[in-house]
Queue: 3 jobs
Job 1
Amino acid sequence: MRSKRALPLLWLLWAAPVAGQTVAEGQAELRSGNYDDAQRIFRRVLRDDASSLGARRGLIEVLTTQGEYEEAEGLALAAPEPVGIANALGEVLLLSGKLDEADRAFRRAIDGGAPDALTAEANLAELLFDRGEIDEATRRFDRFIDIYNDADGRLRAADLVAVGRAVSFLGRTEPALFPQALRAFDEASAADPGWPEPLVRLGSLFLGKYQSSSAQTEFQKALAANPRHPGALFGLAAALEFDGSSQARNVLAQLLDLNPNHVEARAMRARQHLIREGHAEAREEAEKALLVNPNSLSALTALAGVHLAEGDLADFREVRSRALSINPHYAALDATLADLSVKTRRYVQAVARAEAAVQLDSASWEAWGLLGLNELRLGQIEKGRADLERAFAGDPYNPWFKNNLDLLDTFDRFETVRTDHFELFLHGTEADLLATYLVPIVEEAYDSLFRRYGVEPPLPVRVELFPSHADFSVRTLGEVGLGALGVSFGSVLIMDSPGAREVGDYNWASVFWHELAHTFHLGMTDNRVPRWFSEGLAVHEQRQGRAGWGHQPSLAFLRALRDGELKKVSELNDGFMRPAYPEQVIFSYYQASLVFQVIEDRHGFDAIRRMLDGYRRGETTVDLFESVLGESLDGFDDEFDDYLKDRFRSPLRGLVQLGEPLGPTASTSELEDFLRSNPGDLVARLRLGAMLVGEERFDEAESHLEEAVRIFPEYGGGDSPHWYLAQIHRARGDLQQAVASLERLTQYSESAYDAFVMQADLLVELGRPEAAALALDKAVLVWPYDTALHLQLAELNTEVGFFDGAVRERAAVVALAPTDMAEAHYLLAVAYRDADDRVNARRSLLRALDLAPNYEEALELLLELRARAGN
Amino acid sequence: MSQARLGRASVGALVAAMLGLSAPVGLQTQGLQAQSPSTHAIIVVGLGGSSEYRERFHSQAAALQTALTERHGIPAENVVYLGERPEDAPGVIADKSTRDNLFRVLGEVGARAQPMDRLLLVLIGHGTSNRGGTQFNLPGPDITPSDLQTGLIPFPTQTLALVHTGSASGGFLAPLSGPNRIIIAATRTQRERNATEFAQFFVEAMTTDGADLDHDERISMLEAFLYARQEVERFYQEENKLLTEHAMLDDNGDGEGSHEAGLSGPDGLLAATFLLGGAASTAAQVPDDPALARLYEQRLEIQERISQLQAVRAAMTEDAYFAAMEELLVELALKTREIRAIEGGGP
């Protein structure tokens, strides 16, 4: 072959002693990230010896690292020996989007037998793949297996990286090859330990197989040697982005500082903006990237995403066409937009985009997975399962696919209960129990929201409750660990069943109301409503459902308000999508709900409906504040800030830190001393009051707790003064006052289970069974699994003549499968009899007697029922 | 006969028979008295290992002993309690719970037991296991399943109920399984070695009304097992602890226990017939009044027809089953009223 005879000459040129030594120094600086020094060295060498390939290649690499693509290209074109520099030229041309020229350059390197011919081969194959010539690319990738096997361990590090790259691509249709790619990169790293490239490739491989932690380890190793390695920085940013870490932004900023023309970094930034619904910023980044490389598929994808998000379908189609003209099989555009659609809650759109992606490339496993997952989110269970199976067959490394398929395998243990507007998908072990309470609540919520919004969402709404929080996480995110309690995908709501949590963790009826509100909002706006708007409005709707429902002000919220750590209304979306600290999400829920309280108070609910209509038409929040509320969003920011500070003036004063706060082990006397100097300190009052109650020093405790109530009457947290005051009153035998304190507490806490139960007990003692039953009704909406509570509630309902309620409670007892099922069925039969439902009374009675034929009370009831029926 | 293979015509005929279209065979009161089996009970408390366990085991055993005699009507001379320290409760604990003493008591009971009598053997204490097998810890040499098998030789025809409430008790199930034997173990296998809670709830089943799931004022071994199993699970759930014991019952002689034993089998049917308390415990509870005795017989016959109907339930629709059941229950209710009217009591 011609190239082999040319090799020795090139090799000699490369290895020229004086220039090579200096080139080696340049390489060392380059590898350490001292780009300026490296540049200086390489330029000096080239001044002395224009034929130095090593210096020219090194300088080209430095220039491209820093985004100087034009100069790098010129330098490559000026090389006296084109073959040796052809691959480097091709790599530079690629960065500017000069695809045909890059293709020619790579082929020149290959055909000319350049020392980096294998790298050129890998580059060419990838270029062909990216231009949709999949078969030709695959053929070229395939060759690398023989190259590796025939080389018998004699490949250089750069060649091993080329092998790894090729085998990674082959893994697309042969997943078993990925470990081989790993091996090739490992060998490359061992062959040249000082070269970061294999580590970066390893990191990318790990990240491509969802192992973010391993990926970050490799990227960090590369950065340890060269903190400014562009590939490692980009890889690390991608891994952090994968983990949802806000640190990704900082790493990207570092990279763009090094190379403002890094197109992939700009494209990633554009996607980040799109996720937080910052369309203008996303457009800006995409356009900057396309200025550098007009053929960048990732930048075109980002720009297409902007148009799609803004509803500019003609522009979207045009940009998509541009991408497909470069690569007719470019499924990644639609797959990426499907993923972005999910992040912006546009699930129908996600399905459409994923379908388009698999049409372009049937081996786009990511697209099949997005299709399947989103079909599941839209309640298309069987189709979703089938598409997910296909995705998993192609990509068995994907944990989301596997977790969801495993979860789907458990669906045969669930039952479906249908109501007028809902399909309730409940686990068989608790379907009877939950359906008893869910059915009236879901229909009540639907009627209420329907009346308020005047529109009907797509029906039926499917509601899935999972008794395992891990399953809920998988169903919603595909992975374990989601902190939410419920998620709305529009016509499909997924929630933790109350049994997935501890007693008192949350009020499942209230959470359902919240999620159903989302269904209305998403439906009314074609999923265009911003996150903050829908979340705040959903909390506002919870408050319409029941007094005390929805998020309430906490001490932590007030501290954030005091310290200026809340988002402005105009930036509230970031409070959800890009929180500055974890608690900011929960604060944003409450804060956003107050926005709607203000809007409804000042402008009426109709204004809110008109804003929702506006979002549907594609208007922005800025527009809508002007057109509907008649004020600028900036102006509302200031007004709302004043509103918050005015509303919470008293507790804010109580949180002013005047002195050194006492530690957690402060004694009562220390707290008393502190309060003598700082009588307005809310936290000290609360702490001291609680401690004194613990010591049964009720009189002293009461004064502090009353003062705390005066400062912050809305406080319903776990250490609420209302709770302790209730205990004091009860201990003194002042049951009325105890009840009053508990009522105040439950105005500000939807899940105060112990308070509801205590309230019921006190009301029974006060001879108020009806009120006691109402308190227990509220307790059930927090924790429905306590048999004793249902028994008590059944008796109370019977006592006050609310026989339907007694039936409900006795049915709940049966559903909880107590040890004595015969008795449970019998008592249910009695309740049905009292409610004059003879048919069900008979049926329950027969069930009791089937278990216990000699049950004398039940036998007597049977005779009674038959006598009543004239038998 | 398998319930699933019963055809509709057969079911119909059987149901018709159950509804009284064929007259029941009358039973003589004297005959009934003569056929009443006696129940013998042996309670064995093993090594406690600590004072806490020693006291707990003794308390459980003593409560069980009292319930068997006072609540369930077993004559005191038929209930033997072998304990770790007889000196701690003279008059209550008959002797030390050594292996030899257990064998001796088994021999004595076996010698006087009638062929149709029943033996209830309850082991309260710790079990251990290793590669060699499992054992119940006693003062002195422990007792293994094969030891117990030997000790039960004097009971070739009697119905035996062995209740091993300790850790690693599952290892006793297969070796001791056999015809006319009800084996209840607190653990699924011998590898569940943590101390168990089963004894507490088994004793509770015997000493309270909560386990009378069919409200017939008697406790069967099945009811006691179901109650104890359920309460054990509830206990662990409420204490937020991992469930480390899974009770098993075997009574069909196949050596494989069931955690979900019940009337639908494969395990539970024999255990359901091993009843304590009510008319089945001793002959003293059969009424002397011939008219009343006849009513009891008639009620028993109705109860048997109900049992027969329940046996064919799987072959019937729910509506048909309940319709047939209702008729029988009305009969039973009226008969019970008659009985109560004579006895002067009522529900």
Job 2
Amino acid sequence: MPTLGEMFHRLLNAEGQTRAARSVEYFGWFDMSLGMIILVAPFWAASILRIPAPTLEGSNYIRLVGLLVGGLGMLYVVSGRLNATGFVFASLLDRPIVPVIMAVLWYLKILPGPMALAFSISDFGGFLWTLWAWGADTRYRPDTDSGFVAQMAAGFFAFVSGVVRNSRTFHPDGRVFRGTVRSLHPSDPGLARAAERLVGAVLLRIGMGVMKRGMPAWLADRIPDAPSIAARFYTSSTPEEIRLERHAGEDLDLLATAGGDRLWKLLINLSTGGFANGLHQFDYFRNIYSADVPYKIDNGGLDVWVRLVPDLDPAVPTPSNGVAREAALTSAVARRATVRVEAQRTGDTNAPFVPISEIRFEEEIEIDQEALHFDPIAGRDFVPHGFLTRVRRAVYPASFANRGQTVAERARREQEGAGSRLFRYLNPRPIVNDRMPQPPEDAYLYTQGHWVRPVGLIVLGIVLLSGLYLAIRFTRDSPVEYADDELHFKHGSTGGERLTGIPYWFWVALPELFPELLPDRKTGRGFASFGMIYEKGGDPYELPVGVSMRNVRGIDMVYLNCAVCHTGTVRTAAGAPARVISGMPAQGFDLGGWAKFLMAIPLSEKFTPDRMLDQIRKMQDDPRRVVAKPDLINRLIFKFYAVYAARERLLMLRDRLSFVDNGTWGPGRVDTFNAPKALLNFPMKEHPDFRELIGNADFPSIWNQGPREGMQLHWDGNNTSVNERNLSAAFGTGAYPPTLDAPLVLRTAGWLLSKAQPPPFREFFPINESLATQGEGLYKEYCAVCHGTREAPYRHNPQLKEELVGTVIPIAKIGTDRWRLDSYTWLVAANQSTLYAGYEKEWGFDQPYPQRFSHFRKTGGYANAPLDGIWLRAPYLHNGSVPNLRELLEPASKRTKIFYRGNDVYDPQNVGFVSNIAEQDGRMLYRFDTAKPGNGHDGHEGKEYGTDLPPADKQALLEYLKTF
Amino acid sequence: MKTKTRIAIVLLIVTAAAVGITTWYKLYRDVPQPSWIASDRRDAFLNGWIASNGNSGIPYWIWLALPRMFPEYIHYPGGYAAFGISWEQGKEMPAGFAKKTIGYTRVSGNCALCHAASYRKGADDVPEVVAAVPGHALDIEPLLVFFQQCAQDERFNASEILAEVSMATKLSILDKLIYRFILIPQTRRALLDKRALIDAELLSHSRNPHTDPLFTQESMKGLATSMKERRAPKYPLPINTGLAATGKPIFDNFCGSCHSDGAGKRLGTVIPIAEIGTDKDMLKQGGYTAPSLDGIWVRGPYLHNGSVPTVGDLLNPQTQRPAVFFPGNDLLDVVKVGFVSNVPEEPGRRRFFQFDTAKAGNGNAGHTFGTNLSPIDKSALLEYLKTL
């Protein structure tokens, strides 16, 4: 029975640990650290493992768990270090049970999933590791230093040499020379002793590292390559003896490579073209060959770096290609060239390389090079050490064992082909060849191409590559780009798809699957029945104006952009072709109806993954489709995730917006500022002020934004910054601060500054020019004070006494319907100044765009807007309650009480859209009742507003307004 | 020393330095508030950071997300404004909240939480914010209870909060990790204790404002100086100067002996309770101090316990003063000087607290000076008081 002291000693030193015991020890360290963390930070550990937040008492019991886990870990560590085989075996019995138990407990909802998974992975993984290590221990000798990396490398190189190259992986072809070594008598006594040990004969194998015989010369000369020298120092009994097999201890195999005095420098050098570190690809004699491992010499007294330096004969011209290089070597041997062996003390990169021995070429010899193999381990009192030596100890024998043992065998395997070589590699036969090297005196791991490692490497490679592919796919975020500015306005993305995008295939499938929710109940027309503009004719695959597309995480998503509410159509007569006008209010688009459609979807039992995929399958091969049909990954996402996620999101939107009745909007209108209340999640249903719940307003035109900077914008003039107003409106396209695509939105904003212009009325209908000129005077007298001039910048120059364009008229004075004004409260204005917060500085630098909102103000009336393109902005007033300009020049009592919105056929006489018929070309129009709340058409009447003018004057004024 | 050891040590030092610098940057680095706060006294009062230690406050993004996540605990629209907190349009932070970056950005209460208010001249007007006046509209207990309710809700966890925050901004991965593993759990614990928003000094000041040495703190020195120079805000509506002129001698006669400065006057001294006759519940000194009346128009409701809504009511005998009223409204009562207090709820805005003068500590008796004046004299006096 050992004493406790002895046990402690063994614990501290951990000698003779088997691989299995070492795996148990490392697992124990892992458990100990885990236990420590749980003990010290139970709340944090609980939240990581998704355990419900514990009470203070509960957390103390979690600490106890941590203590137990840590204690278990300590047992593992101690037993592992003490090489306790019985304990290791026991750990093989109890750890594989853990995943089973975890699965059961998780199924019974006793434990949360992440916790069960974490413990299963760690315990089962540890079990597998110990199991593998146990197997390795029984098959192989105990390895002292050879580590996991060395074994992986051995398997890899065995594969490359045996299957791929059918030769040595590096230096596949070389030339062998015999030489003699004499000492150069260095002054340092240790070096001198080492030099004495090298005296004798030497076998040199010289060749290029990468090139293979059989490569065309032009290719071989272009690949970056480095030569190397392998030297076997031996004492020959006769002058002609060639030492094919290394005599253990007596012989030293030294490998030296040119192109860098460390292996990593060589690798970098070659991968960057092979121009550094003095590498000469075509001249063996101009290179310096370094043994990339340090050697302990002189009985361990000295630790040196060794290199071989050929004596360069300056008279010999430098070879310039591979053929010349070999010729130069031949002639150098003929004249008995020499190569010096030099040593440098490790630890001091400035220490000199001291020449200790000299090798002299004697003659070139022909031997079976495949039978000649080098063991770069200790010999002649030169002991290599370090990580690379450990790896080489495993790799070199493995590579040798897997290739042809003779030149003839290599040639035969070359004929066989890579397939049979692969088969041979995967099915190693027991070794019968007595020429196979025996394990040398210092133990190293001797592998025979065990299949686990290369298969594992291949699987790892597949996993890494798939991971890379998935990483690239799921971080993808690329909008469809348009070169033309107007096309970009109509279809460019604002970034909304990133958060609220609808997959393209859902977009095309939904109207087909839910025709009963469409206004005209017809399939095959997409969303045209809501008034969306399909420029190419209306097939459901086309993306209408105002719908943008972006590939987000591998799925093509669509969503709305600015143009959906700010692009309309106009026709000169029924049956005439519609002309699409960008920047015009979308007077035919029923946004409220479309939103109602979307929000009814999640309530339908048809909205299931199976029905959706069925519908998509029916449609995905149509030649009119805009994107490719969904691939396997996307189909899986649609089936198992997308429909459920969409349902949740739509239900949330439906709930938050439920206080808004979007059925009252009608085409061309929206309740602008009740939506932000939903975004800010105001509790509008608990104690609402009913006066703020209806804020219906006409879509405005958005031409000529440049001159409008500084004017009070929005119908109630609540913001004076065009940029802020743009960003605020962009929320409607799904562009929130984190998802906004600033460059693309800025591009649209730039286009709207001055390039977006209304088309002239004259292009569509004639204007009585003389009457219009008469109207100009009337306009200047009655309208110009509030509405400014006809042309930008709309402010008069010189300024009028009172310049009111772009300013707010108090509600008492203008007298129009106040529902829209009251829907925007100062609470909304104050809270809006938190939007885009946090964007002021990026890395300490001011960010010019976007900036936090700071310009929203509650006003007390409606703003006077410039009248550019006014003919296309019907119906009129902020709530679109007056169908045409002629009626606006009438007092409210004479204006139509009920009319129809949504028509795009124009009425040039009354200056507005045809609004007295309920149906146009088979499409039902929206019945607008001015008596309903929010739809009042009073106001903007009285002498100052021209409603008292004689009819002839009104006609002239109308004619003039057509010229805007 | 072997190269490998050397490399390992260097790597360790580099890693430790990187971790240290990141920790300092994300948790301790002090960034001064923007210059517009420091340069203007009013803004410094309303939004300046006065907390003394780096642990104060709620992390900014949590503060921003809570009203959007839990409107069912606020009951009225407007986010924090629904608690009676004043908020100037265009300003990022409401009055009484300071935003400051010490490592991470956080929000803490400051003096203005209790000492700033707003007024409206008309029912449709936008509230104007005034600094250094009694925060008559602030309902502090519901605000603290709101935070407690949020913290007790099981939705107060990293996933839900970060989901809401991700609609407002894009946090970096490191910030998300810091929020998930440090800030959110820490804040939850602090809010459960009602500790987070108002740090210890402000809390003790609120309990004992007269003796507590709050102003000796370094961060408060600048504030203290500016407070000494600050003048009361002017009455915002037109004053009938003629009427006010006739009110001045009435004030000097009936009010000046206690409320004016000068020889023989008792401004700033304790008036014995027997003489003043107001509610005895808070009595500590044997009476109540006679305050100066500058800016009295914005200091409603009146008396030490806020039991009389307007000065006009104070000039009536106790039986004619309202027994139940609704303070917290910021609409000015232009006739009686004070705030409109007879509206129990403004729909879509707020429900006001029901002040019952019969409850203990709420008595509105006493201070019957001037109740015998004629109506004309009273209106002249009120007009004069508007000028103070």
Job 3
Amino acid sequence: MNEQTTKLAKEKFEPVHTNKVGGSPFTGITGWIDNRLPIIRMFRHEYLDFQVPKSLSYFWSFGGILTICLVLLIVTGISLGMHYKPDANQAFDSVEKIMRDVNFGWLIRYAHMNLASFFFIAVYLHIFRGLYYGSYKEPRELMWLIGIVIFFLMMATAFLGYTLPWGQMSYWGATVITNLFSAVPVVGKFIVTWLWGDYAVGDAALNRFYVLHWLIAFLIVGVVVFHVIALHIVGSNNPSGIEPKDTRDTVSFSPFTTSKDLLAMLVFLLIFVAVMMYAPNYLGHPDNYIPANPMVTPAHIVPEWYFLPFYAILRSIPDKLMGVVAMVSSIAVLGLLPWLDFSKVRSSVFRPIWKQCVFLFVLDFFVLMYIGGAPAEGIYLVIGRIGTAFWFAFFFILAPLVSIIEKPLPMPTSIHEFEDWKKQGKIKTIKLFNK
Amino acid sequence: MKFNFFKSSSLFIFLFFMSFTNTSFSKEAHVDLLKTSWSFDGFFGKFDRASLQRGYQVYKEVCASCHSMKQLSYRNLGEQGGPEFTEAEVKAIASQYEVSDGPNAEGEMFTRKGKPSDKFKSPYSNENASRAANGGAYPPDMSVLVKARPGGADYIYSLLMGYEEKVPDNIKLEEGVYYNKYMPGNKIRMAKPLSEGSVSYSDGTKATQEQLSKDVVTFLTWAAEPHLEARKKLGFKSVIFLLILTILVYLVKKKIWLRVEPKV
Amino acid sequence: MSEIKNKDKSTRRDFLTTVTATVGAVGVGAAVMPVISQMNPDSSVKALASIEVDLSKVKEGQEITVLWRGKPVFIKRRTKEEIAKAQQVSLKDLKDPQDDKLRVKKGKDEWLVVLGVCTHLGCVPIGGKGDYNGWFCPCHGSHYDTSGRIRKGPAPTNLEIPQYEFVSNDKIKIG
């Protein structure tokens, strides 16, 4: 025997048991499946019995609403995809065919385009909840970062989807936004030609935008899965910002939060259906009913409303490259918030100064949205620049500064004490979204 | 800094909706459009069938010489929710047109009488031909024109009624350009298309300029939104249904939560 | 304990939940229906579901082919010999017995209207060829006679007669 085998003979071997079948609380067929793939007990643990703070307001329902929106967007999207033709000569006509000839085509098309808008309404409210209640703070930083990734993917998907009807805004919006890549030093121009597959936006671009629209939409589903897994590890935040300690602070996810979320979803759907059925083109732009014409640019190229604040930030910087950098950073900077805002108190309910800052930020968001739809000149440009400055000041100046100087209000020690204080009128919460 | 939450939330909502007024930004002075009552407006809007049929007659006799409506087929004229011509009338309308078909066995394109399944015949074979025949200007396809202009039906109606005799002093008109009060820029290459008596209505209605304009705009609105009536009808049913379901779910939710908070 | 276990299931709560769930299910069904329906033929396809064919220019002995629902339809104006031949065939000799009279319209037996799709595996048979003076399918050698009936070869049934009617003396509507 050589040295190696002698060494092996002396080693202790760890027993290995890779077969993990068993342990299911279920019997019968359910148990048979669950023993081999524990999704049934996982479902019960994560979605039925899961303990969730009982102080959650309706602001917490937007996650569920976003999921419903995503599912409906995919279902309507697949239905549209069965009829849409991603060819520059046929795209506009194929959409009209869907609107006129396909059974319920008008309904599916209007649903898909208005769902995109409502998806963004929901996500902005969802993000607002995060900002106001400090949901981005430890230990939820990664979940917050994953959320920002989802937001970027949503914007990419929405942008790509908007090009598909091949109207004037589709074409010119695509031209303007893809041209932004030419701001990249040295290789910018080559990147743009590479993106286009041509020397201008055209059939080659449309075809690949169609494929990418589908791809990124399904990527969103994947990243959302991680977002929810992360949530289930750290647990939900709640309006008090205090972590749950015992079962006085919590309720089981089902039936309490499920029934509440269901109600919120229905109210959301009600508003959505009303808009879709009675004002289906209100959130859109009439110019997109003009077939794309590479020779004629519309008087005012405007992106869809949900992009307007970022469009305003882009246009407020005179330098092309810095404008793009500013626009992308204005969203990316959200990712730095867990570290820029280092206050130990999560919820703005107990942060009198930060609360005002958040409201000012929201105001800034709407101001920038208005500016984004205005011509980039005169007083609009001035306001846009002030708005952009405030946006970054909120993150880089206000967040750390307020963390240092703010004296938080007296806080309860637990969630159930928070609930008592609310009943006693000792603290004010955003009433509109309270149960 | 004191901040009233209700004031601020109402401010946000106000700002949110104000953000949409920017979609109609323009350098020119904003002119108020002529307002008229449309039968298809409102939650229970419907198309006036007779008006649609008259509107089609106006399109056919006046507009179709320059404006195509490529997205429409003759059979649409007989479908529910539109002018609802009879099957025989639709066949008769379609067969008035010679449409291109082929190639035949010899490899040549030929013409034949139109069928209901054919698309509306265009006055020009393509945009270039259209521009060449109209001094460089392109009379737009009108299939979705009502949706393609801010102000929609009101705008098109105003435009048709907006050819004013008196041209303001600061506006110089080139050859072949006319003044219109509602056209952005006030200059339009289309001569006034409709005047009293331009069309002699087959149903005997008096063809005033208002009547002609109203009928053709109603027709164009249907052409852009052939399923408008079905949409509003379904909309009403859906909203009522969702209201009922929301109330039911609200009651169920309240019942469930009583287990946590016995006192509401 | 934050939950008071309600052992006493009041029938009112059950009823409410059941009603709500039912109404909800109806809603889901109504929402799913358009998604399923959009896959059905759309109205432009349905508009071409029937076609009218003008027969006035078809001479005796001549055959024309028209496209109907994406498939060829052979319309043959048969000569007297062809009609006689078709009527004289004994039903015993046919793989798919069918009298010629049943394959034409009453009083219009000079007009044969058949779907030009071989009943074996779907190829388009060639007219004026084959051992029975009807059609011959080159794919696997099926022979059809002057009534479009299968006489030799692997095809199991006669050429299909589509739904059609004479809307005037020299015009038919197929479909």
